[in-house]
Design goal:
Residues 612-709 form the STAS domain. This is N-acyl-D-glucosamine 2-epimerase. InterPro entries: 6-hairpin_glycosidase_sf, 6hp_glycosidase-like_sf, Ssp411, STAS_dom, STAS_dom_sf. It comes from Gloeocapsopsis crepidinum LEGE 06123. By secondary structure, the chain is of the alpha+beta class. Helices cover 35% and strands 23% of the residues. It starts with 7 loop residues before the first strand and ends with a strand. It has 18 helices and 31 strands.
């Protein structure tokens, strides 16, 4: 009975163990050490993983040479039940490589996620506003898979806020003004159309949505009209209403925005918080009485869950602390994570956290979720506990995060194909070996984000080699299968085997559940973690502070909560000019008071990095590059990157005033670079002194490099 004696297609993700040229086969070992023999057919083809906005990159001709031991690949093919001893023969039809060499992961390149966030931002700008003016009256929540607007006139507060978060994050990474324009206009639209200020109570709360009627008038939708939250004010909707404005505030310091944020935090403390000794935050309140105990709430009466307790941190509270440095928000974060550490572990009963509770923290099984766990919430807890551990180190945070990191892959990860599952039964029924998937075995984009960020930051903070492996496997699955390289954006869901799932409400690129949040947040923080924590690469961030907006004119530029002392400011430019009034270790900039408008670019580097190269300008075909620190062999790649940006120029001016030393390898590279550029190509060095001057003289490159005084 139930004999599998038919063919079926599927995906194998794993590490190459060997390649047999005579048989045209290779071994592929999965993440959990099961090995498959893979046959290459005459129609098999290979490709390199590609980013959004990139063309297909064929690797078929080199495919066999690339199948070297240790390399992580995806093999999609067909299982045939006619192997020896009842084994299945697997014929590969499609191979996806993650890099050009066996140890390269293209998604860990310095600019991979920055390129991706730019493509995402342009996709949503086009989808919502076309090529014209950015006008949020034209915004619609529901978008098709190609980015076209659906007929509904609904504008949901949370989806606007999440998209605003995306545009703000894209600006932080790219400095493109149109992205900030979209973030600021979206923040203003939320304030003018979705906000309810209750001055008598000193609070602010946000409408669920606005319906734009055919005649152009608006109808406010106060209480939620979504699923389990119907006719209530759910805490998570108020939380996510702050996501976009808070990220925008980090850039601009707009006082109107911080006033709204503070008033909404008052709402949480006054009406959602359980002020008794039990503690925590309620998941819903009544829209009229603002009480969590109203009978009208039904099964949502006096309940607590992950969203109401923990989602404050990633959605807005960490970013609010980064922007302000205020102790009030650090204390709020500590209270939040202490609550999570005290109540969410449940490892005597299940490998998954408990995330739904009654008023007294007893387990709540009355919701649709019942005794089930959402994989992404487990991963989200590990990710945010690790962030918090760098703000206030507590062994409870670290232990709980590492526990999730070690336990969850065996039960919530697809170790055959890659990627993280959705909702699963928390306990096994008698006779079961695998925790059951509740709805399906599809994989949602936002749960992949949680896994990638959790394991990258844990790898950087806790230095566990298993964590970097899980981070790369998760990022590989996401970049190989979730990016819609044809239409743009990312898919809501893919099937277990990575193929897009495009039916029903999960077909579109915009809905109640999907907007420009998780995919943008992934780009922003994956860039931060891989560059600053893992690969020790410098990063540039952009701000446009309102004059006099930030208290004491202090701009805080820490990109995320990272281990103390792990990063520092290297250089700052304001309106294109170098600026030196900053505290490198505190990651703060004292803004000037005589500028009517400021665009700030700040270069942040790992504390261990002592070199920087920056292409300042190209004028009349001559590139000017500033060099600072010590140009050792390990730093040469950063210098090369800046020279490559100036491709096609007729000369280079190197400002070496702040360069302390230069290696022989760097000098040989300059000689080779000039040779390739031609005899008419000029390299001029300015401000040469000390050890740098001596090194150039000893290299006898005086005729290749013109030393100007």
């Amino acid at each position: 009975m139930n004999t599998i004696d038919f063919t079926f297609s599927d995906l194998i993700a794993g590490y190459v163990t060997h390649f047999d040229q005579t048989q045209d086969t290779f071994g592929l070992k999965t993440s959990d050490d099961r090995e498959f023999l893979v046959h290459l057919t005459s129609t098999a083809f290979g490709e390199l993983v590609r980013n959004l906005g990139e063309a297909y990159r064929d690797a078929t001709a080199q495919m066999r040479e690339m199948l070297v031991p240790g390399r992580f690949v995806f093999a999609y093919g067909i299982f045939y039940p006619d192997g020896e001893n009842g084994d299945y023969k697997f014929d590969a039809k499609h191979i996806v490589f993650l890099g050009r060499s066996e140890n390269e992961y293209l998604f860990e390149q310095q600019n991979w996620w920055i390129k991706q966030v730019r493509e995402l931002a342009n996709f949503y700008l086009k989808a919502e506003f076309g090529d014209g003016e950015i006008d949020y009256f034209e915004y619609r929540t529901n978008l098709t898979i190609t980015g076209d607007k659906q007929k509904s006139g609904r504008q949901e507060t949370d989806t606007i806020s999440r998209l605003v978060y995306g545009f703000a994050s894209a600006y932080l990474l790219t400095g493109e003004d149109r992205f900030l324009e979209a973030a600021e206009k979206g923040t203003k639209y939320l304030r003018e159309h979705m906000r309810f200020r209750d001055e008598s109570e000193g609070i602010c709360y946000w409408y669920h949505a606005v319906d734009i009627k055919d005649d152009g008038t608006e109808q406010k939708i106060f209480a939620s009209e979504f699923g389990d939250d119907y006719d209530a004010i759910p805490c998570y909707e108020q939380i996510y209403a702050l996501a976009g404005p808070t990220q925008t505030y980090r850039i601009t310091g707009d006082r109107r925005t911080i006033d709204d944020i503070k008033a909404t935090v008052n709402l949480f403390h006054r009406f959602f918080k359980d002020k008794s000794e039990k503690g925590g935050y309620y998941s819903h309140i009544d829209p009229i009485t603002l009480s969590a105990y109203s009978e009208s709430l039904g099964r949502n009466r006096a309940k607590k869950n992950w969203n109401s307790v923990g989602d404050h941190a990633p959605a807005y509270l960490i970013n609010l602390w980064l922007a302000t440095g205020e102790q009030e928000y650090a204390d709020f974060l500590e209270y939040t994570f202490d609550t999570i550490a005290n109540h969410f572990p449940d490892y005597d009963a299940s490998p998954f956290v408990q995330e739904k509770f009654n008023d007294d923290w007893s387990k709540d099984y009355q919701t649709v979720q019942q005794n089930r766990s959402i994989i992404g919430h487990n991963l989200k807890i590990a990710w945010n506990l690790t962030r918090m551990h760098s703000l206030k180190a507590k062994e409870t945070y670290k232990t709980f995060a590492e526990k999730i990191g070690h336990v969850i892959p065996a039960v919530g990860c697809d170790r055959q194909r890659g990627g993280w599952y959705d909702m699963m039964e928390r306990v096994l029924a008698p006779g079961e070996k695998f925790h059951r998937l509740v709805w399906h075995d599809r994989k949602a984009w936002w749960q992949q984000e949680q896994g990638i960020l959790a394991y990258y930051i844990m790898a950087g903070v806790y230095q566990d080699p298993n964590f970097i492996r899980f981070a790369r496997e998760g990022a590989a699955f996401y970049n190989a299968w979730f990016l819609d390289t044809e239409s743009g954006g990312v898919y809501f869901n893919v099937l277990a085997n990575g193929e897009p799932y495009a039916l029903g409400t999960e077909r579109g690129k915009g809905s109640h559940s999907m907007a420009g949040y998780h995919s943008f947040e992934l780009c922003y923080l994956a860039a931060v973690y891989t560059n600053l924590l893992i690969n020790k690469e410098p990063m540039d961030f952009y701000f446009k502070p309102t004059p006099g907006g930030f208290p004491d004119n202090i701009l805080r530029v820490q990109p995320d909560i990272l281990p103390p002392g792990s990063i520092r400011i290297d250089e700052v430019w304001i309106n294109g000019h170098k600026y030196t009034d900053f505290d490198a270790e505190a990651l703060t900039i004292k803004l000037p008071t005589d500028q009517a408008e400021m665009k700030v670019r700040v270069r942040i580097v790992p504390a261990s990095v002592d070199f920087d190269a920056d292409l300042i300008e190209v004028t009349d075909g001559v590139a000017k590059i500033d060099l600072t620190g010590s140009l050792e062999p390990s730093m040469l790649k950063y210098f090369k990157e800046e020279l490559e940006k100036a491709h096609g120029v007729k000369g280079v001016v190197l400002n070496m005033q702040d360069l302390n030393s230069i290696s022989d390898e760097a000098l040989r590279y300059l000689a080779f670079y000039k040779q390739k550029a031609g005899s008419n190509f000029n390299i001029t060095a300015l401000g040469v002194k000390g050890a740098v001057k001596e090194a150039i003289e000893q290299s006898e490159l005086n005729e290749e490099i013109v030393v100007a005084h």
